[in-house]
Amino acid sequence: MAGLPPTGDDAVDREPRASRVRAPARLPRSACAALAALLATALTAVPAGPAQAFTGGNHEDVTRAALPWQPRTLAAMADARDGAVNADDHRPYFDVGPLHCDNADYLAPRYAPDYPRTRDEATTELLACVRTSVARFRNAVRAAEGLVGADGTVRADQSDLGSPCTWDEKPGRAKCVVLEQLGRGWHPIEDFYAHSNWTDRPAPGPTGLDNPPGLRRTGPAPFLDIRRYSALDDAAWTRQARALIPADLATGCYPDFDSTGLKPAGCDGRVSHNRALNKDTPASARSRTGDNFRHATAGATAEITRQWNAFTAELLARYPDHRRGARMACAIVHDDPAVACR
What we know:
Helix 2 packs antiparallel against helix 3 and helix 11 packs antiparallel against helix 12 (324-333). The chain is built from 13 helices and no strands. It is mostly helical.
């Protein structure tokens, strides 16, 4: 299993790999009521690296399509170069496989009798990716409390975007911290759709190392239930998630030497990220089979909407007094929350 990604004070910033790239999930009526009432009055390119992932522009397109946020706040999250969702494509995060859902590669014996990785090893690697998003979700929920006072009043000093946020994992304005944690948590989820065979169909011809099977799934991945997992201990949610991972699911092998010690030669004889599976651009080999690229971006867009709605639901449930959770969600969405979220 790859080393766990840096978090908190141990994490550092870096330069872009190529980026990777979810659609609106619906909240239950009961969870929406307080937020809807509050919002109704107010709402009216990255250089290529050694591997490819959803480019920063594709991450931006997916994130913008998924989030009904106001312009300045949405730009802070989605911008191709400087948005929080692209922060993991800067060093040292760029080369950490679990932050991009890489290295969960596997081929069943019917495709490759001597494949060098087991299903269990691939699943463990994928769960390391999910774990990064669970940790970021928990961090974002805690940080959101700083957006409002005990009486539910939005704190202007903590929700202002008059000056740019910096994605450096350091304490700062609550809104910047929330955006950074969400963005870093959503990045690997977006990458999962670009780097896996979840939505794919294989190219015509034999299935194998250069043409892995495709799962052709159209719905969200059930093992990305980040909100529910955030309330469980790691042993409980990993056990549940492991049972939901299909036997033929795979992401590509990517040599992230700094993180796992895997040199380029370590991907020999394995399903490769670059050659076999990535759909990071329409020009990628896997993208050119049928509508694989469009399906990957549609899946990622729908997933990010689901993740945002789940985060909003968590705020409403966690901070019900004085409608604090609803105002936290409002403060995240709006460019001038001190006015919009009264």
